[in-house]
Amino acid sequence: MDDILKGAFDLHIHCSPDIVSRSVDDLDMAEDAVKNGMSGFVIKNHYAPTAGRAALVRKLYPGLNAVGSVTLDSAVGGINPMAVETMARMGGKVVWFPTFDSYLQLDYAMEHTPQFIEMQMKLTRAGMHHPAIRVLDEDGRVRKEVRLVLDVIADYDLLLATGHISHEEAYELMKAAREQHVRRMLLSHVDCLSTRYTVEEQKVFLDLGAVIEHSFLYTAEKAVHWDVICNEIRCAGTDRVVFSTDFGQSRWDSPAEGMRCCIQKLLESGFSEGEVRAMTAKTPRALIE
């Protein structure tokens, strides 16, 4: 067992089965996690709910907390309360707001995501083109169906994650979530170039009660300078930050290896072992337990 990963919990990984090649499937990831003493992980998929997959992993690996989620993109009907209710009843715990189908991300996805382009073109030729998904209406108010989703999140005490929506949408969403008694909120991968949040913007969401997610993927891809990330962590406080990997891409190592590299880099940057454990184990687990 690799002690550096003992107890680590990765809130954000991508596994097969998926519509693209992944570095691991659910069982590969589970085996890696158990071998290295990780406590669990959340399976994210842009196109399909993962609660059923996570339940089977937990049955095969009883000591491992594999957690299912749903992403509110078009494949599940977009902002769909029934999709969230169904996921929750199957034991899933994380709701990602739109990613590739969000209006902020759709143009980027059409340019940089070949499998997404192919699906969109096929459906468009069949007369089934769908618009980008928006959290707010034309007057800037939270849409009715979003509020219904927030009700379900609150009912089951799920984790709300912002996904790839715009800053304005994320702010109004979290304000509405607080009004509707949602307790767990995650500002997703603040280092992603398409959803980048400055330290000043992060503070606004911290005031709303959110936890800040840094994803090691964007460190690996050098999207933001590491020193900038370290400063943002110290400004937020290590008790209000989680580090996930967002790994699973076939061009990178396995998520477990990504988490190992993440922990090593944080320790080398002067964070204490306790601070690193908080960001990679304690706080992530608390968000879904």
Write up what this structure looks like:
The chain has a 6-stranded parallel beta sheet. Strands 1-2-3 form a 3-stranded parallel beta sheet. Strand 2 (40-43), helix 2 and strand 3 form a beta-alpha-beta unit. It starts with 8 loop residues before the first strand and ends with a helix. It is α/β, with parallel strands linked by helices and 289 residues long. Helix content is 46%, strand content 12%. The protein has one domain (3-288): Metal-dependent hydrolases (TIM Barrel, Alpha-Beta Barrel), CATH 3.20.20. It has helices spanning 26-35, 51-60, 81-89, 103-112, 114-125, 144-156, 167-179, 199-207, 216-220, 226-236, 255-268, 273-288; strands at residues 9-13, 40-43, 65-67, 69-71, 94-96, 159-161, 184-187, 211-215, 241-244. The protein contains 12 helices and 9 strands. The longest helix has 16 residues, at 273-288. Helix 4 (103-112) packs across helix 5, helix 8 runs parallel beside helix 10 and helix 11 (255-268) crosses helix 12 (273-288).
Q: Nutshell version of this structure?
A:
Helix content is 46%, strand content 12%. With 289 residues, it is α/β, with parallel strands linked by helices.
